[in-house]
Amino acid sequence: MTGSLILDIARDGIFTFLRVGAPVMLVALGVGLAISLVQALTQIQEQTLIFVPKIIAVFSSLLIFLPFMSDALGGYMRRIAEQIATGG
């Protein structure tokens, strides 16, 4: 295995990680921002108010994006398995 091949595999892994994690993280960021804005506008400073809507939104987005996420991870695993099978 050459150094450039290892870097290509690592780069592909990082991009796959970003594709898998980004949708859920963006949903959590959006919900957190919206609730923070509502808290700032209404001056309700309850710290636990943010957790329940964010948890519901993250779990809902996981259910929605799970096919896409498993497709991305499966494709990455196929590419790695092909590299192993062909010997690099």
UniProtKB/TrEMBL annotation:
One of its GO terms (cellular component) is bacterial-type flagellum basal body. It comes from the Bacteria. Its main location: membrane. It is a multi-pass membrane protein. Keywords: Bacterial flagellum, Cell membrane, Cell projection, Cilium, Flagellum, Membrane, Transmembrane, Transmembrane helix. It is found in: Cell membrane; Bacterial flagellum basal body. InterPro entries: Bac_export_3 (IPR002191), FliQ (IPR006305). The chain crosses the membrane at residues 20-42, 48-69. One of its GO terms (biological process) is bacterial-type flagellum assembly. Role in flagellar biosynthesis. Belongs to the FliQ/MopD/SpaQ family. This is Flagellar biosynthetic protein FliQ. The gene is fliQ.
